[in-house]
Specification:
About 15% of the residues lie in helices and about 25% in strands. It is an alpha+beta fold. Bound molecules: FE2/S2 (inorganic) cluster (FES).
């Protein structure tokens, strides 16, 4: 005689409440995964070192010598200047924007309508081929139609261990004349790092010959 089959365990169907609970749990898990992914995405550097938008690290030997004129860094879209006594005593300098001595990285795009201005050694100034705006080596506008000074990138001076010894002052140049200004490299500087992702907008400047 065949043995009686063991009764199968009874499985109670999922209730509507349980079903909604599981759906809610799955939605929350998905939301948390997306939020975590987005956080990691935004925390990662968006641009590689050495490409525009990222940081450019230069040895001290790549910095132009004092008052030797701007040096072009096309990949970073900036001019690197090292201003000294000659620049500081430039008689064309508007009195509202006295030249600070030291290094600065000037964004290569004209603040009028976005053309690429050029350094013109014979006139010792930047000139824009599109509509004629002119700027001194420190980025100060001396002729329009541009209505403000050129934009600057933040520079950090690094010692041999990579420690930051000094950096471009950030802030609004309209409120703080030191913001974005050149600064003297401290002793012990072996490299500078220019962050082309951190731009300081030039101060408002509209008077003929430059000035507020
Ligand atoms: S874009 Fe440079 S002067 Fe107009």
């Amino acid at each position: 005689m065949a043995a009686a089959a063991a009764p199968s365990p009874s499985v109670s169907p999922m209730t509507r409440r349980e079903f909604l609970y599981y759906i809610w749990g799955a939605s929350m898990a998905l939301l948390l995964a997306e939020t975590g992914g987005a956080t990691i995405w935004f925390a990662l550097p968006r641009f590689k070192a050495g490409e525009f938008g990222g940081a450019f690290t230069l040895d001290a030997s790549q910095i132009p010598s004092v008052d030797s004129g701007p040096k072009d860094f096309p990949d970073g879209r900036f001019w690197l200047v090292n201003l000294g006594p000659k620049s500081a005593s430039d008689s064309r300098q508007p009195k509202d924007y006295p030249t600070q001595q030291g290094v600065a990285a000037i964004y290569k795009v004209c603040v009028h309508l976005g053309c690429l201005y050029k350094w013109v050694p014979t006139n010792d100034r930047f000139e824009c081929p599109c509509h004629g705006s002119k700027y001194l080596a420190n980025g100060v506008r001396v002729d329009g139609p541009a209505t403000r000074n050129l934009d600057m990138f933040i520079i950090e001076a690094l010692d041999a261990s990579g420690k930051v010894l000094a950096k471009t002052e950030s802030g609004d140049p309209n409120a703080d004349p030191k913001a974005g200004s050149p600064f003297l490299l401290p002793p012990g500087t072996v490299q500078i790092r220019i962050d082309t992702g951190k731009k300081i907008q030039g101060a408002f400047n509209t008077k003929p010959g430059g000035g507020k």
